Amino acid sequence: MSAEWKSLARSVGYTVSQGDSVTVQLDGGSSQTLYCEARDEENVLRVWSVIARQKTVNEVSRDESPLRYAWERNRLSDLVGFTIDTRGRLIGETWVPFEGLTTDELGFSLKELARVCDWHEFRLAGEDVY
Length: 130
What we know:
Layout: H1 2-12, E1 21-25, E2 31-39, E3 44-52, H2 54-60, H3 66-74, E4 81-84, E5 90-97, H4 103-125
Antiparallel strand pairs: 1-2, 2-3, 3-5, 4-5
Helix pairs in contact: 1-4
């Protein structure tokens, strides 16, 4: 299925890098890099993006743990989930099932993940880093 999602992403107009990343250009001139992991055994595509480095996460969550901050964001979101990765960064992610995957669905999922991550990145860091 790895090759299939890449073909769908290309047909939407995205360029897939050799490292299986896609850079999404957003309104207003910013962009967001998304990393794609085909999990064939689970029949899903995991797509994730960095929102904030560990230093920024620690600054915005001074009075609570970074995981609690991510959990609070998850309470407000349906499509995008938030977590802290092993490097302490806040990331946004979505899981796209391969079953019945269409060009429109993949395009929407990539664009929405990029939009949400970019918005949180700007809100927390004040700049377009990722």
